Amino acid sequence: MAADDAELPAREAMDFDVVIVGAGPAGLAAAIRLKQKAAETGSDLSVVVVEKGSEVGAHILSGAVIDPIGLNRLIPDWKERGAPVDTPVTEDVFLVLGPEGDVRLPNWPMPPLMKNHGNYIVSLGSLCKWLGDQATELGVEIYPGFAATEVLYDEKGAVVGIATGDMGVGRDGEPKDSFVRGMELRGKYTLIGEGARGSLAKELIRHFDLANGHEPQKYGIGLKELWQVAPERHRPGYVQHSFGWPLDNKTGGGSFLYHYGDNLVAVGFVVHLNYANPYLSPYEEFQRYKTHPAIRGTFEGGKRIGYGARAITEGGWQSMPDLVFPGGALLGCAAGMVNLPRIKGSHNAILSGIAAGDAIVEALAVGRSHDKLDAYEKEVRTGHIARDLKRVRNMKPFWSRFGTVLGVALGGTDLWLNTIISGVGLGYTLKHGKNDAVATNKAANFKPIAYPKPDGKLTFDRLTNVSFSATNHEEDQPVHLKLLDPTVPIAVNLPEYAEPAQRYCPAAVYEIVQDKGEPRFQINAQNCVHCKTCDIKDPSQNINWTCPEGGGGPNYAGM
Length: 559
Description:
The chain is an alpha+beta fold and 559 residues long. Helix content is 25%, strand content 24%.
């Protein structure tokens, strides 16, 4: 019998002006902006950032080519301060892949928004570490290794902070000898910057009905390997994007190759999670992609040094929920501010953090607290973030409705019109219509896909790759992947959908094993890289991703 909260010691509480969940670009930008504004006015503003990763950057995964607009506004002298942003894009290539060959798309027809001139190839994890250092120098308190697991409300229903999870709880739910009670971090305002499909953001969106009047959020799964390649194959500043093979025309997605740093190449593959075929494995498609004649040569003589996976918000402008609630706001990817065609979100994340910081400083200056930050919502809905997202708002719906070839062509035409007529285009906004779980079709309509076996040199099995994410969880803790109904995987998902959790998970968390001749659904929670795909794609919406103990999960280095 698990211990009841009433039987546990009371949590200690700490009070701050602002509590921020998530030490990603959005959360750290908000923290830095708050301290910058406080310094300008000579006021004393207490700011805390809580981060579930073992250190700042440990759970950050992105391509990444960044648009420096956000960084320029936040820290104009970032170059002089030594930000790890030192590989400008020198060549920008777009390919359409077929089974054996490829076609390079000319750059001149691309809308200006799609061109990477002036952008930089970075490790976003390293950039976040640097931002964390800048925040700490300004007096921000950052608590890595602490998972925010609960939203705190006052008697009027306003958010007044968060509570971190208890540490040292056994698999049976009972406290162990190492038990440490979580803490309450209370603030006049609470900002949520957890990234895509964050557990607290999901609760807040539901609790305050923030998605009402907006389209369902759409997602992709992004898989990435970091390689150190042979020097003669390294082209610093080279950026390559592609779509097409190995995905069929009805399955959205694409790839990237970014050359930077010390002979480093970031290779990634994105599959839109509204795919229909339950036999499809995004991970296996990624491995197949690397074998293409236009791709594999990059990795000859190289070695893979990192792996990870992460859900990406793709719904864009029409899927962005209301951003504010009594006592706080959603930032960055927690609100879905990714520009899908550009495969970029960090610039909008930083800009959202700046806007939230400005709105809070204005509110605190006149004695406000625990109310709605309407100035933040207005800035996002009318400022640069709006201009960035409104121009590309129809790309995803076109792609989903008409497939890759026609959908991308129509989306590109619409993007040009929205560029020419400043985000207005033809004046329409297409709808997404349904979430990604509903898009999953029945297994009876498809045939199983026979994926090639990994060769251990260019292609790898999932468990081997997971070891390159440095993922670790305390084994004797409650399973953080909760089944709303334990019977559904075998009774419903297996006969109707061939239980796709076996394939959509990029870390082999879910298995169907035989137990005395009968199938059993097994959860290997230790492998979880916190991508949240299961929470999104399960066709029965039966899996609820919750935070494990703080410090658990991947420990990405340079990703």
